[in-house]
Amino acid sequence: MRVGVARFSRTLFFRRVGPTIMPPLERMMTVLTRGRVPLSGLLVPSLVLHTIGAKSGVERDSTLMYCPEPQGRILVTGSNFARDQHPAWTANLLKNPDAAVSIKGRRFAVTATLIPDEEREAVWAWIEKQWPGYRGYEVASGRVLRIFRLTPTEPQRQ
């Protein structure tokens, strides 16, 4: 199933249609499940990232796919459906790295760190071990994708 979802998510069709249809569908699912299950979470590991807007100062929520790392850390990649611009949430994290995530209805604080150039290849290898071909988004976008490591700043309850 994961291979099929990964393949479909990299198609030109999905990259064109996804940005239009996914946000309203995610909002509908949030209402139906009271925020416990993102629509994308039915197919891929998903979270809601809560950031402070870089320009507005207002809390912003973004539903994202993630790759778990050891010690409870989380990797998120600013693929933006392979568009040529970075998603706004990446600018938010660059300006204010203190954020929060919600996974399966549990919200906890995190600190975001942009992956440095010397660590990018190892991080991409880890991501692609879980999602083969995901780096294709970077090639298709024509830009270097921002990858952030989200480190929990408080103990997580099970």
Write a short abstract of this structure:
This protein has 5 helices and 7 strands. By secondary structure, it is of the alpha+beta class.
Write the layout of secondary structure elements.
Layout: H1 2-9, H2 12-33, E1 46-52, E2 59-65, E3 67-68, E4 74-77, H3 88-95, E5 98-103, E6 106-114, H4 117-130, H5 136-141, E7 147-152
Antiparallel strand pairs: 1-2, 1-5, 3-4, 4-7, 5-6, 6-7
List descriptors.
158 residues, alpha+beta, Pnp Oxidase, Chain A, globular
Main-sheet strand order equals 2-1-5-6-7-4-3
Spell out the helices and strands N to C: HHEEEEHEEHHE
**Integer tally of domains:** 1
What is the class in the CATH system? Mainly Beta
CATH topology heading: Pnp Oxidase, Chain A
Find the count of extended strands (DSSP E, 2+ residues).
Answer: 7
Characterize the structure shown:
This protein is of the alpha+beta class. It has one domain: Roll (Pnp Oxidase, Chain A). About 35% of the residues lie in helices and about 25% in strands. It contains five helices and seven strands. It has helices at about 1-10, 10-35, 90-95, 115-130, 135-140, and strands spanning about 45-50, 60-65, 65-70, 75, 100-105, 105-115, 145-150. It has a seven-stranded antiparallel β-sheet with strand order 2-1-5-6-7-4-3, with helices on both faces. It is globular, with a radius of gyration of 15 Å.
